[in-house]
Design a protein that fits this description.
The structure holds 2 protein chains of 2 kinds. By secondary structure, chain A is mostly beta strands. Chain A has no helices and 11 strands. In chain A, a hairpin with a 2-residue loop joins strand 6 and strand 7. The chains are: A mainly beta, B mainly beta. At the A-B interface, strand 4, strand 5, strand 9 and strand 10 of A face strand 4, strand 5, strand 9 and strand 10 of B.
Chain lengths: 110, 115
């Protein structure tokens, strides 16, 4: 079983700050996913990574396969970024189901 | 296409009752996943279907749980003789998986409260 760990568990930032959330996993993967969950439950996929780096707007995700580590960065954070950010990994040889971390709860204060 | 939908959104039941949840995936998606999320935790995998075939079940899925996807479209998850420990958010996700891995698209979830 792959252990997926995220840090920090909780994060409070001032609007405009640069934010980093970290994710590490124990077993080689097919892909790593960053997801956003708002209060009420809805989960939205932000990134799917198997190598390198991806950028979408103010969000940047990186992965280091050798170190089994990924980071999600938010530049110029805004109160609307407040949500739970969840890291998940998947394997193509086992059905691609997600194995999730426990999430990082982010609050951005105006 | 309106995305993945789940019904009901909320269900309150008494211990010992049976409940059934429905998930309607995105129409062209061949894979459908069920996850369970308890408060403060990340979701946990329960089971998944490729078309109508149920290909894997987690050991979290006790004998009281059964899932079906009879025509390869919508899916149902039934919990028999509910227990208070079944209280959780039940999430459904779908994807199209062919040669390349695709991401999963999640529904809004069904929140179950067992009294």
């Amino acid at each position: 079983k792959n252990e997926v760990e995220q840090s920090p568990q909780n994060l409070t930032a001032q609007e405009g700050e640069f934010i980093t959330i970290n994710c590490s996993y124990s077993v080689g993967i097919s892909a790593l996913h960053w997801l956003q969950q708002h209060p009420g439950g809805g989960i939205v996929s932000l990134f799917m990574l198997s190598s390198g780096k991806k950028k979408h707007g103010r969000l940047i995700a990186t992965i280091n396969i050798q170190e089994k580590h990924s980071s999600l960065h938010i530049t110029a954070s805004h109160p609307r970024d407040s949500a739970v950010y969840i890291c998940a990994v998947s394997y193509t040889n086992t059905g691609n189901q997600f194995y999730f971390g426990t999430g990082t709860s982010l609050t951005v204060i105006p | 296409d309106t995305g993945v939908s789940q019904n009901p959104r909320h269900k309150i039941t008494k211990r010992g009752q049976n409940v059934t949840f429905r998930c309607d995936p995105i129409s062209e998606h061949n894979r459908l996943y069920w996850y369970r999320q308890t408060l403060g935790q990340g979701p946990e995998f329960l089971t998944y279907f490729q078309n109508e075939a149920q290909l894997e079940k987690s050991r979290l899925l006790s004998d009281r749980f059964s899932a079906e996807r009879p025509k390869g479209s919508f899916s149902t998850l039934e919990i028999q003789r509910t227990e208070q420990g079944d209280s959780a958010m039940y999430l459904c996700a779908s994807s199209f998986t062919g040669f390349f891995q695709d991401t999963q698209y999640f529904g809004p979830g069904t929140r179950l409260t067992v009294l």
